[in-house]
Amino acid sequence: MKYAIRTRHDLMSQEIRNHLKERFDTLGLSEDNTEPDIVVTIGGDGTLLDAFHHYVDRLDTTAFVGIHTGHLGFYADWLPHEINALAEGIAHGKYSIETYPLIEVRMSKLNAEPQKYLVLNEATFRLASGTLAVDVYLQNELFECFRGDGLCVSTPTGSTAYNRSLGGAIIHPTIEVMQLTEMASINNRVFRTIGSPLILPKDQTIKLIPTGAKKCILTIDHHTELHEDVTRLDYELSGKKVQFARLKASTFWNRVHNSFIN
């Protein structure tokens, strides 16, 4: 079993990393930061998102598990005092693999090759300044002409992130859907949008065509990019999935409860 550890740079996370590495080495696991079988993150959900994008080319063979030392541990559901049990469970293969859907985003620009991204949480689209105007197509049919701050497309696992703060639904991560949520839409006698989150099943697509936009901001999970001359954005569920190593009996709804209610 080969492992890699990704951490935040605070002292607590570094100390936990050193202790976990000693336990792994004692149990006969080997550290391999290039081709790990399992990646342990120490920090918060942002640390796990960073690890996901670092190993995005190894999703078929690498599983993730997180230790929570940050402010919110929805993905990172292990606590520092549990690291010995975590190390033992990984070393002896006492875990199951859960796979969750991802979204593929394809961005087209004038006089440039399309760029592709994989999304674990959500992708948002807005202007660098001003009101976003974009035509929204579902299954290549014009659905609405959106005016507002922006749009968010989220995975089921990402439904508890920014999507939730926008009033989107929380979706169980095993359901293969994506969700389109508005960011402060304009609704009056001239402009009208659905004003409600939309949940699209597998094999359906979303296409956004900006109208008159020059500089746009695209976020892919925790990464933010500024682009010019974006002509089109396409969203669909990816054929790839992310793998999580689960050693605890806690369910998805336990994690929702502990993150937002407890």
UniProtKB/TrEMBL annotation:
Predominant cellular place of this UniProt entry's protein: cytoplasm
Gene3D superfamilies xref list: Probable inorganic polyphosphate/atp-NAD kinase, domain 1, Probable inorganic polyphosphate/atp-NAD kinase, domain 2
Cofactors that this protein relies on: a divalent metal cation
Chain residues that bind NAD(+): D45, G46, N121, E122, R147, D149, T160, A161, Y162, N163, R164, S165, A184
UniProt catalytic activity: NAD(+) + ATP = ADP + NADP(+) + H(+)
Enzyme class: transferase
EC number: 2.7.1.23
Sorted UniProt keywords: ATP-binding, Cytoplasm, Kinase, NAD, NADP, Nucleotide-binding, Transferase
Segments passing through the bilayer: none
Active site: D45 (proton acceptor)
Entry's Gene Ontology cellular component terms: cytoplasm
Protein name: NAD kinase
Lineage: Bacteria, Bacillati, Bacillota, Bacilli, Bacillales
